[in-house]
Recover the amino acids of this structure.
């Protein structure tokens, strides 16, 4: 197994142990993609350091990056960089149509709350089955007075996804055989599409991994 943090340090990305240390969580949750021919999309390119890291770690993957700035010169044989707005659903849908479906989507873009919400609501339903959607630098959700990241906070929206994961109490569980366990049937309607799609959510400081069924 490749050491993702070592690659991150060599590529000088802030995902390494020198800064955010997100690599330990990516290694844990995404190592099964290591030798697969996956499609990865990263929102937010900047200097291209993390795209370079992904191309080395996922050596068989097709890597795509989007940025509001024209950074197409960072493209390589394996990496495709496109210019576009993560807050534009039409652009995102066309992106997925032309280059997806993606197995792994990483939002390291503007960090604006509304942009994160737009990107997730548009791209998560288009994510490949058993894919993973990651949002980085969640602490920025609270920096409204500093960076102007806006309201409502995306972390508040993430709480609603926890509710979706639990089906908001919908169940058809009935126990009639064990007298020690109360019997109940609670049906609050059909599961919503989001409730059906979310399989698991893993939170860490500054980052969340959302897994699709």
């Amino acid at each position: 197994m490749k050491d993702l943090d070592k690659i991150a340090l060599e590529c000088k990305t802030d995902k390494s142990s020198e800064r955010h240390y997100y690599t330990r969580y990516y290694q844990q949750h995404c190592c099964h993609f290591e030798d697969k021919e996956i499609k990865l999309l990263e929102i937010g390119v900047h200097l291209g350091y993390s795209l370079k890291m992904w191309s080395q770690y996922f050596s068989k993957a097709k890597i795509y990056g989007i940025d509001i700035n024209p950074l197409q010169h960072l493209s390589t044989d394996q990496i495709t960089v496109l210019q576009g707005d993560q807050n534009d659903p039409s652009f995102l849908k066309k992106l997925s149509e032309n280059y997806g479906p993606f197995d792994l989507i990483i939002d390291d873009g503007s960090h604006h709350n509304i942009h994160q919400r737009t990107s997730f609501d548009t791209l998560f339903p288009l994510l490949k089955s058993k894919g993973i959607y990651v949002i980085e630098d969640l602490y920025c959700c609270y920096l409204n007075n500093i960076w102007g990241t806006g309201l409502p906070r995306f972390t508040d929206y993430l709480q609603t996804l926890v509710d979706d994961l639990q089906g908001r109490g919908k169940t058809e569980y009935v126990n009639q055989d064990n007298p020690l366990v109360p019997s109940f049937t609670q049906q609050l309607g059909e599961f919503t599409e989001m409730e059906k799609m979310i399989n698991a959510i893993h939170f860490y400081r500054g980052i969340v991994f959302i897994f699709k069924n």
The mean pLDDT is 92. The domain at 4-212 is CATH 3.40.50.150 (Rossmann fold). The chain is about 30% helix and 20% strand.
